[in-house]
Write a structure and sequence with these properties.
A: 117 residues, mainly beta, 12 strands, B: 115 residues, 7-stranded mixed β-sheet, 4-stranded antiparallel β-sheet
Chain lengths: 117, 115
């Protein structure tokens, strides 16, 4: 069965510091997708990134960057020069097919990030 | 206007009451999902539907039922609510097709409290 582990339950950093959120996954599939979602205090879920298992190239989007390493089954998320608006719960998720070929998304338990002004 | 809407946004009810949470989408997606979120547990899948005639149980379906009234509507029912069903409930949709299209789009959530 697929599994996503976000070992960091809560992280606090001072504004402008860099912070990395860890995500480790388990899957038997060779084809799968990994996601990061942000949940701000208002509660909605905001899609941040999707990465397929065949693309190990790191991605950068502004202050956000993602490091995907199949060798360690990790998909870590780094925020550079953090801002108070980055305070949120961040979820890592894994998508793979079940026994009937249907896509299922499994979420990690989330990391609560607090940026201290 | 939001692509995925949920009603109600907040609901307080009593143990034993029947509750229905509704989800509507204007994205034209075939696939719809219901999740619940509990502190420290992330999101867990309750039910999902890949088209109007397809209903599947998720990880934690006990105590819940669903109805896919139309492509755009997917309702979640608690036949007899109990306090441990107090949670934040999310509806989501996704397009079918190859795996490149399996991003899920989430509604704003329904906060349900069972007293």
């Amino acid at each position: 069965a697929q599994k996503v582990t976000q070992a960091q339950t809560e992280i606090s950093v001072v504004e402008k510091e860099d912070v990395t959120l860890d995500c480790v996954y388990e899957t038997r599939d060779t084809t799968y997708y990994l996601f990061w979602y942000k949940q701000p205090p208002s509660g909605e879920l905001v899609f941040l990134i999707r990465r397929n298992s065949f693309d190990e190239q790191n991605e950068i989007s502004g202050r956000y960057s993602w490091n995907f390493q199949k060798s360690t089954s990790s998909f870590n998320f780094t925020i550079t020069a953090s801002q108070v608006v980055d305070s949120a719960v961040y979820f890592c998720a894994l998508s793979e097919a079940d026994n009937f070929g249907n896509e299922k998304l499994t979420f990690g338990t989330g990391t609560r990030l607090t940026i201290i002004p | 206007d939001a692509d995925v809407t949920q009603t109600p946004r907040n609901r307080i009810t009593k143990t034993g009451k029947r509750i229905m949470l509704e989800c509507s989408q204007t994205k034209g997606h075939d696939r719809m999902y219901w999740y619940r979120q509990d502190p420290g547990l992330g999101l867990r899948l309750i039910y999902y539907s890949f088209d109007v005639k397809d209903i599947n149980k998720g990880e934690i379906s006990d105590g819940y039922s669903v109805s896919r009234q139309a492509q755009a509507k997917f309702s979640l029912s608690l036949e007899s609510a109990i306090p441990n069903q107090t949670a934040l409930y999310f509806c989501a949709t996704s397009a079918p097709g190859d795996r490149a299209d399996n991003e899920q789009f989430f509604g704003p959530g329904t906060r349900l409290t069972v007293l």
